[in-house]
Design brief:
By secondary structure, chain A is mostly helical. Chain A is built from nine helices and no strands. The chains are: A mainly alpha, B alpha+beta. The interface between A and B is large, with 46 and 40 residues.
Amino acid sequence: MFIQWLAKIIVALNANTRPVEIGLGISFAFWLGIIPFNLPAMPLFNLLWLALFLIAFFIKINQAIFMVFLAIFKLLAPVIYPLSAWLGYAVLTVPELYSFFTSLNEIPLLFFTYFNSPLVMGGFLLGLFLFGPLSLIASLLVRLYREKLRERIAHSKLVKAFFQIPLVKKISELLGGAISFYQGLRG
Amino acid sequence: MPKIKLPKLFAQSLTKADLEKRIYRKIYLQEYRDFIDGVLEEDANGNLRVRENLSKKELAKLKKIANSIRKNKGFVNRGKLIFTGLFIAALIIFTVFFKDSLVENVAEQGLEAVFQARCDLNGLRFSLLGGRLFFSHLEVANREKPMRNLFELGPTEIRLNLAEMLKGKVIIENLACEEIRWDTPRKFSGALPGPQTQVTAKATAGQEESNPLAFLNDVKAGALAVLEKEKENLQSLKRVLDLSKEYSEHLADWDKKREKLLDAYKKVETSIKKVTEIDVKKLKNLTEVKAALDLWTETYQEVSAFKKDVESTVKELNKELAKVEADRKEIAKKVEEDLKWIMDSLTAPITSSSSVIGKIADRILGFSVGQIISYAKLGLGYFNELKPKAPQEIKPEPPEKQYGFVSFPGRSYPRFLLQHASCSLGQLAGDHLRFELRNLTGQPDLLKAPCDFSYEQKNGKQLFSVMLKEQLMLALIPKGPFRLR
């Protein structure tokens, strides 16, 4: 499974896809990764998380990158929690926003976004602030990779030797077209 | 040489500006750009077009590139969006045109399966998102008497607060059932097709003339039967009956003893009389003296024996009196225990197995509503589950919980709230009864509104006792204000 996802990432990086799709996939994964899906003692999952996931579902992003990075950011989320909780708490306790949040609290469905949780609010804001920069940086890195590294890697003796290893050959056969980019390059 | 079929994007000649805009801007791999540069050639007009002598391999790669260019258009996944849109449209069409009739049919079939008789449900409105179920009329035929209804319900509504339900709270905004009637006549047979539901015409004719309040005849007998059965649990009564039997036997024994003592007394009295009649001065010889002495001795022995009998009888009597006192105390204790048991049975929640009122209600409702009562009791039993529970053992908190929530003012509901419930019994022996209940909850301190129960009755006397109502309320509300209007 992991190898399959890894192969899909390699394919995505080497295929003729828009770098911004990869950038958006990583940004959405980060956003959804730092917003808790469900909170303890809460009866329903987070509607905000679901709404963002649906947006990611309908937008053209690289799904493989999105899923892999979502898993990675979910694992790393507890490291970011202190920062997002601090940010969320700071925003939620701004006196000028008190009446706004109170009116939000009155809307039945918005309750299930758990916006009054510092983690959710902080995660949402952090994701929102970093969405653009993260997409941009990821896109630039993909462009850089494709322009500077891709050809070198594909034609390097190390990669050629790697694909001659029997186990790798077998895996590549099993994965079918997942690593066909290599053959594509050769053709 | 056969003409090869190029991808649509490359089929016609392109200006350099077109090439840049339509192709190069959507290619992100240098290798693909180089390939396209290699397969394009300039025509007579100075435009660029794909050369004709492409190999199969080149053509396949060109198709692959054209596909990837096509995919790199737009930012919205149209396929998923169209599919979701169609699904939502289908859902809306189903909701508007078919939902209510489908739910109505399913409900009718379900009820027919339960009651094994025809059910007619009209005017059903079902809203899943609104948490509302309404119907204007329901009648369920009696399986045994197909020309009569088992029960009939008028406008009925169940409306729940779905948002609060998702939070794990049961908030019933309205629970109304108007014009409940039992055993009403039907215009057509309520028998379901099939041999098991067929009844003879004679039986049907007889049923049509029966009294609509016939079920009430069984109510008194049912209540008495329950009370008779409950009487078996009274320990004092059982003990009194046992002792009564025991003391009846003792009384007979004492009668015998009294007779025996009286006989002995008479005998002694006669002997003493004989002794007192002896005149010592008149005794002439030794033989007469000896006879007198024998009589004295005999009488003395009789008196001594009588004394012994009396003493032992007094002892027995004292013992018997002590036993009577002990039995009296035991009975008093058992009476006290029984009284406590009776009070407990009366004040126990109606859903509890020890409640006498619950048992009588079971019996009474069993006559009229049959299987429904078990479901109703089950529903009432869930009420106890909704009462606030004692805090559980603290477990280590996951990281998400360590940061808590910032609270903002908003309406806080209790775990269970019945905001409004009403029920009316239509045309019951000329009476019209209507019950209404507001703000029933297990946490009245959260609601800050009194629980309000009212009933109205027209043309007749009251059918249900106040005690039953109080009992019901007490069973449901552990504390908090309650006003009987």
